[in-house]
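Task: complex structure prediction.
Instruction: return structure tokens for all chains below.
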Amino acid sequence: ETGVTQTPRHLVMGMTNKKSLKCEQHLGHNAMYWYKQSAKKPLELMFVYSLEERVENNSVPSRFSPECPNSSHLFLHLHTLQPEDSALYLCASSQPPGTGFNGYTFGSGTRLTVV
Amino acid sequence: AQSVTQPDIHITVSEGASLELRCNYSYGATPYLFWYVQSPGQGLQLLLKYFSGDTLVQGIKGFEAEFKRSQSSFNLRKPSVHWSDAAEYFCAVGAPENAGNMLTFGGGTRLMVKP
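Output:
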């Protein structure tokens, strides 16, 4: 148990489907992140939420839509994805900067396959 | 913007041998530096971190890393590798002047351990 739980662990979806990835943390952190990990590419920061406000969006296509309803939960809504979006999607949490930032705690990831 | 390079994509060492994984960063000041480890199908686990102070930092699982400002490096070391250390290792850098919590990761080094 890492303290950051991601569901589902595996997801196969068609290009016309709509699905959501969920991330939940009970560490008392107030910043949450989505990273994409593709084969043979470095981890790519997708979205950052600090104190439930989005503070970073690294030019991610609009077919990915994040939602952070509270400091413990983070979602990534997916629609009309492409095969190249197949990857491991990692959620992480931390304290925000200036309040004891100590690095990230990662979840185990959701392995997404787009067919 | 900060960047980080891990020059070795794959490294193979014999069990019981010493290990050094290289990490070079690009940043104008002293960054936040991290090493994470990822086992297959899992998220990333924090091994150790450097923010300031003593340039030799100790982490979990017997790992240590040394910050060398003159070489812009933060190499990870272990004196005696165990078979369970086989995994992928990621170096990451954060920029304190820009909040510090949006980490940039290197491409990773996959460690294989020979019996």
